[in-house]
Amino acid sequence: MAVTKRAAISGNTPNKTVKKETTPNPPAKKGIWATLSKHVMTGISNMIPFLIMGGLILAFSQIIPYVILGISPDVGIIDAMNSGKFTGFNQELLRFAYLTQEFGGTLFGFAIPMFAAFMANSIGGKLAFPAGFIGGLMATSPTSVINLVGGEYVPESPVASTFIGAIIVAIAAGYLVKWLNKTIKVSHNMLAFKTTFLIPMLAALSVMLGMHYIVTPFGGLINDLIKQGLEAAGSVGSIGYTIALSAATAIDLGGPINKAAGFVALGFTTDGVLPITARVVAIVVPSIGLGLATIIDKYVVKRHVFDKQFYPQGKTAMFLAFMGISEGAIPFALENPKIIIPSYMIGAITGSCTAVLLGAVQWFPESAIWAWPLIENIPSYVIGIGVGALVTAILVIFARNAMIKKGTLVVDSND
C-alpha cells in the first residue's frame, strides 16, 4: 500500500494503530493526621541533634565530679568547689564540669524551640521558621502575666505549655504564614519588604498574642493536670505508664507505633513530667534478648532452636542494641512473629518495670551505651536490661523448642 505524503511527514502510516494517551492517576491525598505526623516527625528529627549534643556535653558534667573525682551525688559542683577539698587540677576539672553543665543545659533548652521552628517550616516554608522558633521559645519560657496580689500588681510566671504548646504554635504559625504568603499580593519591587518585614512581623505578633492568651493557659493547664494526676496515682501511675510505654516501644521495633510512643514519651520528658527510662530500656531489650537466645539455647534445651544463619545475626543484634538500635531484632520477628513479638514485648515490660522499681532514672532520650553515665542508679538500669533480655531469651527458646518437638517448626542448625 502506498504511503501518502502526510503519513510520511508525520511518520505514521494510515493503518498504524494510534495508542490513546492516558494521563497518570494523581497521587492519593494524605489524611490530616498523616500530614501532621509528617510535619511532627520533621520537627523531632531536627530537634534530636540538640538533645544528643546537649546530652553528650552534659555527660562530662556528671562523669567528672561523680565518677572521676568521686563526689557524692547529692553534692553540687559549686558546693564541691566551695568545700575547699579540691585544688589545682581537680578544681579546674570542676570548673570545666560546671561549664559543660551550663552549656549542655542551654542546648537542651533549644530543643523545643527548634522542634517548633522546623515543624512550622515544614508546613509554611522558611518564612514560618522564625515564628515557630519564637513560639517554641515562649512554650518553654512563657511571658509573665500581671496579677493583682494583695492590692498590688505583680508579674507571675505561668505554667509552661512546653511540648504541647510547641505543637500547637508550630501548626498555627506554619499555616498562618502559608496563608499570609499566599494572600498578600505585592509588586515585584515590594517583594523584599513582604518577606523580610511584613510577614515576619505579622507572624511574630500573632504568635505573641496567641501564646499569651490561648496556648500558654491551655497547655499549662494540661501539663498541670497531668502532673497532679501522676502525683495522685503515685507509684501505681508510674508503673502503668512504664508498662504502656515499654509495650508500645517494643512492639514494632522502630515502626509507627514505636515512633508514636516515642513522641508521647519525649513530650513528657522534655516537659520534666516523667523520665524516659521505660522507653530506653524497651528499645534494647528485644535485640539483646534474642541475641542472648542464640547464645544459650544449646545449654538450656540441649539443641539449637534457630536456623544457622540467625546465630551471627544474634551477635549483630546485640551489638546494635548497645548502640541504641532495635532494628537488629527485625529478622527474628519476621521469621516467626507469633512467638518472637509477644516474647520480646513481655521481656521489655519486665525489664522496664524492674529498672524503674529498683530506682533507675533516665531523662536523656538515648539508649546507647554512651548515654549510660547520665542515668541515675546505673546498676538498677543494667539489672533491668538483664532481666528483660533473659525473660525474652527463655520465652523464645522454650516456645521454639516446643514447636520443634511437635513438628510444627523445622530448623536447619546442623545439630
From TrEMBL:
Bilayer topology term: Multi-pass membrane protein
Residues in coiled coil: none
Region (Disordered): 1-26
Signal peptide: none
Residues annotated as transmembrane: 48-69, 103-120, 127-146, 158-177, 197-215, 276-296, 316-334, 341-361, 381-399
Swiss-Prot/TrEMBL keywords: Cell membrane, Membrane, Phosphotransferase system, Sugar transport, Transmembrane, Transmembrane helix, Transport
Classification via PANTHER family: FRUCTOSE-LIKE PERMEASE, FRUCTOSE-LIKE PTS SYSTEM EIIBC COMPONENT-RELATED
The protein's name: Fructose-specific PTS system IIC-like component
Lineage of the species this protein comes from: Bacteria, Bacillati, Bacillota, Erysipelotrichia, Erysipelotrichales
